[in-house]
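Worked problem 6 (solution included).
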Amino acid sequence: MNKMSKIRFKGFHTSLERKQIGEITTSFSGGTPKSSNKSYYEGDIPFIRSGEVKSKQTELFISDEALQNSSAKMVSQGDILYALYGATSGEVAISQINGAINQAILAIKPNSGYSSEFIMNYLKKEKDNILEKYLQGGQGNLSAAIVKSIELSLPSLDEQSAIGSLFRTLDDLLSSYMDNLTNYQSLKATMLSKMFPKVGQTVPEIRLEGFKGEWEKTTLEKSTDRVKSYSLSRDVEMNQDTGLKYIHYGDIHLGKVSMIDDGNSIPYIKTDTKLSEFLQQGDLIFADASEDYKGIAEVAVVVTALSEKIVAGLHTIAVRPQSIFDSIFLYYMFKTQTFRKYGYKVGTGMKVFGISPSNLMKYEFYYPDKKEQQAIGAYFSNLDNLINSHQEKITQLEILKKKLLQDMFI
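Solution. The predicted structure is:
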């Protein structure tokens, strides 16, 4: 008795036929022109390698002569490209370009009556199962024979096309959100570099409308007061509510805390140590240790009044800005490459890198009046909200797509 998929489009009731991919398609692999002949790689034919099956462009291009004098073969936009070798084994996509393929890719062309989108999405859904069955331990390569032997259950062409169209729409939505996310992330990086003064400058390259005048110079030591950090070990972490939470430097590096409010999943702890200083709205917490230079003095900020007691913990440096400073402005200032480069310069260590409180507190920076600080902080907060919104949409669409792949294919 044929199995039926959990979800089917309304109006489709026909039974499914079980076929091997080799029965309903033709397929071939390509080859690589000799790298010793440089002229082979001076043409205008895109040369698709296994890591580029999903890409709209290629790193390498080959000539007509290279195509004629090697096993490289041409594929057309719309063909299925299946990666056979190495780290990309099992990756599959519909080719977005006309180009030549090497031996690490299997091109698959469905026969009349069968949908490329349907077959491609089935292979995508089965990727983990295929790798587990044929590449145990991640060793070795897939082959054309293996792919052609894979069985799938097929509805009518109309239903295949409807299913393929659904997943193409989801992929287009995902691509759109990912493109927008990349653009917003790029905009943020650009504006961080232009809305805060660079080294040797007293004002930024770009200012928000309505603001002018020189920025003033200060240091972190002059502009903030230290808040005590407690070197409590994370092995005292407790699951039950003890009324006391503890921020570990690893929480900052892992992104568990960034903009800190009551919604953060910060562990409760129980300790016999007498604690007297708790974090407040506006406090900045730096990680003073990192496994690489990029993480030196990574920062988090308390953005709301906290209903529970929270302390700065192991390998953190906490500061409380004075009233003329806006904490959100400072938080984003410490995200700039200007500050990151300072951290690289004064950081120490070989395997674990760090920054001392004295070096951190010596950091010099320029600042405008508080109204402009707040406007800059709000600008970047809104930009982060857009970035987070797109990241959430992408996650939701990926979860939906995975669920539909499981429920619409057998």
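Discussion: The first helix runs from residue 21 to 24.
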